Amino acid sequence: MVETTAHTHKVFDEDLAELRSVISRMGGLCEALIAGAVDALATRNVDAAIQCVADDARIDALEAEAETLAVRIIALRAPLADDLREIVAALKIAGTLERIGDYAKNIAKRASAMAQAHPIEPVIIVPEMARVVTGMIKDVLDAFVDRDPELARRVCERDTVVDDFYNSLFRTLLTFMMENPHYITPSTHLLFVAKNLERIGDHATSVGEMVFYTVTGEHLTDRPKSDDTSTYLARPDGD
Which residue, 89, 125, 168, 179, has fewest beta-carbon neighbours within 10 Å? Predict the structure, then answer.
């Protein structure tokens, strides 16, 4: 963890602490929204899914609050070097978290649609995949608040786990649809749910890269990626 230095003006430290707090609250809401949407999917709870869709507005409001606060700090404090990097990173992270909220909202919408169809077995993979991405969000926001570049790096490395889940579910669903063509609609919805979770993992990784750069001034290279679904071709004979 990198040590922080107190600023000459206490109010500057208070402003930065408030900005970090807003970002942390956004992260917590994203975690809760993902978990809630996936639980609604697994339990086929339409009311819970509808509530998750509505809850996304709270994340949007916090993004606006973070943007206003960051602009105010820049205008009033004229931050330099490390401080400026952190504030710019906070702006980018807020936008990324807002996008994560949108993905979670989309999962909730598809949960409502899937509740109207017959349940399909591959859905059991989704909750574990969701637990991985929510863990990534929690840890990467801890890394941001604590200015911990090594934790940020480890979060980035975990993106391959999310990709592996997605690859597995992608193949499973293609085979399932070929064998059960009357389940194509719910299977397609579930495939989009998995893709949303995979994209959330990508965004958490992007935040990790931002945090690493903010603290060290260096860019992470060789971003791990193991999603190979773009080249996969399902064959009727199973080969």
Answer: 179
